[in-house]
Design goal:
This protein is an alpha+beta fold. It contains 5 helices and 9 strands, in the order αββββαββαααβββ. The protein has helices at 12-25, 69-76, 104-111, 116-124, 134-148, and strands at 33-39, 45-51, 55-56, 59-65, 79-86, 91-101, 159-173, 181-187, 193-198.
Length: 200
């Protein structure tokens, strides 16, 4: 089905919600997974998959170890881009904008909802740093488990959330002969959104 700017909601967040709901209804595995691209202070890029853990008019939330490569990137360069790819629906969605850290209070509130195993892993892992073996990593998890016992785990000191605040969206639909439909939203100074078609 052809996509045109006039067929999309004027608010890209509303359009995103519609596409995400359709991806969920289609039973796509991890419909809330997206590729997050960052760059360090020298402009060297890095990309990885993360999970969307909340979104709304203020932006799109994800959580990670703040001492990880993406955390270090965002400390010196708070611009990032994201890509959702729903292959069986022949759709992609690109977002780009600035990233803001979430408060420790918001991060802690989310952390308490994670399975205990995931909480232990967040405490045990120095994300992205070398380690001598799998056994050493599992020993760290066991040590953290002994330290806290059956009690609640507090927010790890280097772990927390971020919010991507988009100033640009691109909705993409695959079409025959690579003549894809691409509709871009650009945030205007007024706070509204301008829409335009891009060539494939």
């Amino acid at each position: 089905m052809a996509m045109d700017a006039a067929t999309l909601d004027p608010d890209p967040l509303v359009q995103f919600d519609a596409w995400l709901a359709e991806a969920v209804a289609a039973r796509i595995a991890l419909p809330d997974a997206f590729a997050l691209a960052t760059a360090d202070g020298m402009g060297h890029p890095s990309v990885r998959m993360v999970l969307l853990r909340g979104h709304g008019a203020d932006g799109y939330d994800f959580y990670t170890n703040r001492a990880s490569r993406k955390g270090r990137d965002l400390l010196v360069n708070n611009h990032a881009a994201a890509l959702f790819h729903w292959a069986t629906l022949d759709r992609q969605l690109r977002l780009s904008g600035v990233v803001e850290p979430l408060s420790d209070e918001a991060s802690a509130a989310y952390f308490t909802t994670r399975p205990r195993g995931s909480q232990l892993s967040a405490w045990a892992s120095e994300q992205g740093e070398p380690i001598e073996s799998r056994e050493a990593l599992e020993a760290r998890v066991a040590e953290i488990g002994k330290r806290f016992g059956d009690g609640p785990l507090p927010l790890p000191p280097d772990w927390g959330g971020y919010r991507l605040v988009p100033d640009r969206y691109e909705f993409w639909v695959s079409r025959p002969d690579r003549l894809h439909d691409r509709i871009e939203y650009i945030r205007e100074e007024s706070g509204g959104w301008a829409r335009r078609r891009l060539q494939p």
